[in-house]
Every structure is written in C-alpha cells, then in structure tokens.
Reverse transcriptase zinc-binding domain-containing protein
Amino acid sequence: MGECIIQGFNFKVNSGTTIKFWEHKWLGEESLRAVFPTLYGLSAQKEVMIADMINDQDQNYWKFQFTRVLQPWEEDQLQTLSQLLSVVQLQDDSEDCLQWKWSKDLSFSVKLAYSKWEDQSFLENKELLSLWRNICPPKTELFAWMAVQDCIAAKTVLVRRGVIPGDQATCTFCKSEEESPSHLLLHCHFSWEIWSEIIAWWNLVWICPQSLMQVFHFWSNIRFRNLEKLCWYASYYATIWTIWTSRNESVFKHKVWTVEEIVELVKTRVAIWIKGKYDIKDYSVDDFRCNLAAIRRVRI
Ligand SMILES: [Zn+2]
C-alpha cells in the first residue's frame, strides 16, 4: 500500500546530490534503470547520485563509466539517453525535493491523494485514511501513514530488500534489538521514553499500545476541540517524525541524542507547525513548550 502513494511522487532535481541517477524516478515516469536496463547492467556507477555523474565545468558532459566497451547498439542507447539528459540543468544552491505528479502545480495534495486512491481501489483499509488530518506538513503525515504500514527504511526493511547485510540490523538507539519500523518508532525503550514524555506534557495517562496504529487510536479516542485538538494531533506526527529524523542524524552524522533533546524538538515542532498553519500570533513557541495549559484553552 505504501507503494501506491510512492507512485505519485517524482523527484524534482535541483542540486542532484540526493537523487540516485539510475534508481530514482526523476526524468520522466520511470527510473533510468527501468528505461535503459542494458546500460544500467553495464554501468560501473549503479549507486551514483546525479551530481556525481555530471562534469563540474561542463554540465552537458556526463561521466559514464561502463564495465566494458559498448557495442554499437548500446552506443545508440547511450546516445538516446544523452539526448534526454541534455535538458537537465542542476541548481547547486537548492536542495532536491519531491513533487506530487497528480496535482496541477506538482505540490502534494492530501485531497487529491484521497481521490486518487479511491479511484484506483487502493483502499484496502479505510482506517488508514483517518491518519490524514491535513494539520501538519504533508511529508510528516505521509511518513506516519507509511510508518504504520512498516513501509519506512528501517534496518530490517533494508535487510529484507538486500540493501544492507543481515548482521547490520541493530537498532540505532538501543544498539541491542533489531531495528524494525515498530521497534524504532515505538517499542525501543529510548523511543518509548520520548512518547511517555509527550503524554506527560499533556497530563495524560499512557496505555500500552502494540502498534503505531493503536497509538493513533488512543490519540483519536481523546476528544479535544479547537486549538487543543490540532496540537494534540500534531504531537502524534511530530513525535514520529522527530524520532525518525533524529535517528537519521545518528546514522548519517553520528549524532548522539538524549531523550530530553528529542522531546524538546517534538514540542518545538508542534509549536512551529501549528503557529505557522493557523496564524497563532499571541503565543510564542515557548508558550507551547512550557505552558501548554494556556494554549489548550484558546478557541480558534
Ligand atoms: Zn532500540
């Protein structure tokens, strides 16, 4: 099911430093690997990013390396590929991003996502739709939606796909158990403490859910209204998103986190997202973090 929404996304190339030249869909509807399987098979740069393929001095020159000399018909394919690439201009100063191909302006739209899935009978489980609240940045709600279905690149998933060896699946945080999506985002004692701190921030008593979907049920069963309700839902998405992005900083930049640091980040994100989207000017980020009781009384 996670694949369905992924099909709607294309990469928008800017710097080209985070998009894989062969593997990702960034030039048309298919990956270059799918369109030029022979060239991909012969490539000596299968994992390379777009930016690493292009010549710094001359952006029209692409640095292909193959494992043997190409046959004439393969040279023809390379010629075709080069023509396709001739329109590409990298923008060094801005980051690559995702765009949603089913909307007119290519931005991600939750409403369009709904109708698209219903059109294509993608809805195996309507319960999952309740995860879309259109309260937080779409990428964070999308991430939660994928996370409850185990469709995120946690280490056990990467092992299953053959991306990393089986003996490298140890959890980034606790370094003792396997890093499955549900372990990483919920059951790991490190993540569990983060959830518990967020629940304590709300002065609530925590139950013991088995899955992220059950955590969401817990969230949905508490009937808040107005601003309080928006902040409450934002806390769910911000917790999942912040655990994940912190984990990535640990993996890729070797950052070491404390529970407290991540909890503060979650609270700050809730404040920034809600203040930004609902134009809440009378309360500061610190009011959200340190005086949630006052925010909860606000009617909008
Ligand atoms: Zn763990």
Q: What stands out?
A: The longest helix spans residues 226-253. Confidence is low (pLDDT under 50) at residues 120-124. The chain is about 50% helix and 5% strand.
